[in-house]
Write a structure and sequence with these properties.
two-stranded antiparallel sheet, 13 helices, 405 residues, elongated, alpha+beta, six-stranded mixed beta barrel
Length: 405
Amino acid sequence: MKWQNLFKSAFRSMLRSRMRSLLTTLGIIIGVSAVIVMVAIGQGAQRDIENQISALGTNLIIIYPGATRVGGVSQGAGSFNRFTMEDIDKLTKETTLLEGISPVVRSGGQIIGGTGNWSTSVFGVSQDYLNIRDWLIESGEFFTEREIRAKAKVAILGQTIVKNIFADMDPIGQTIRIRNVPFKVIGVLAAKGQSASGVDQDDMILAPSTTVLNRLAGGRHISFIFASAVTLEKLEDAQNEIRAVLREAHKLNPGDDDDFTIRNQSEIADAASETSRVLTLLLGSIAGVSLIVGGIGIMNIMLVSVTERTREIGIRLAIGAREVDIMIQFLTEAVVLSLIGGLIGILLAFGIVYILNDFSELSAVINPAIVFLAFIFSGAVGIFFGFYPARKASRLNPIDALRYE
């Protein structure tokens, strides 16, 4: 039988029982659409994470205090803080591969000002902070080096603070009280959005590091250090330079472990991407099970079809059809059923992704390679699960088949 005749026969068989064919392909439709949508959601999440990480800053290096060891057990980053302003001065003077460096002194508390109050974090930073974080001032101005040295009580507000306590007012020039210490608002940061960990980066106040350290934090240790390498290619060398300077500053012997932890933007992105990749693989695998279930449905319905058409098979064998012809005929019907289910599943997936992107907070990115693979896999499912019914049909005895009632 010619191929076009085989396909015509397969379509005629489907059209004879439309509802049964639709229900048969339902598993394939759900399986293909689920695979494409799940992978699209995973890749959308990965894209969002990459965008958020790139928004952290340019060639960013973060240096955390710790880790020390107690009884041979590492206590982790942040467990032991020895960072002081002297470390910043030493890094500024002795490193050659850093474009910017900023201490970060973290404090917080209730903010009173404008039309209400708000509880938030206050970060004491240097002038390099905005360039390192690739952040802009929306209105007003940033504090100067002179204001840092003078421990001036000036503040830059994030957008969330402005919305909550200066909704109908211009905050520039206003006074806010941070834990009862008055600060003059001199600027407002541009919106930054959520970080990769879901933290609202606009819910913060920036102030001179010296001011926060002496008037709010009440100590001599800074929380952590932000720095940026001169180029992306020099990121690793810049880290080595920082490590050498800090080890010397902290008087660590050659065999001693670092009492700090250095992370760069690429490492953070790689860790987040790996998590997202594993999640995508898991979701895609779970959705792939639906395709297997759909294939079992096709095998069942093809077995029913072989039983219903036993006399037809007997007649074809009696007039000279070979076993391979019967086998190819039923195998073609199974594959056509699967491929049509795959096509409907692809259309359904595009519709779901459109709805997700336009009417929900989820973002989904359709990968053309995944669409192609899902379609090919649906055809493979038809071949695999259609083989047994087709083989059973081809091995019928013509006389027994003709006598079948």
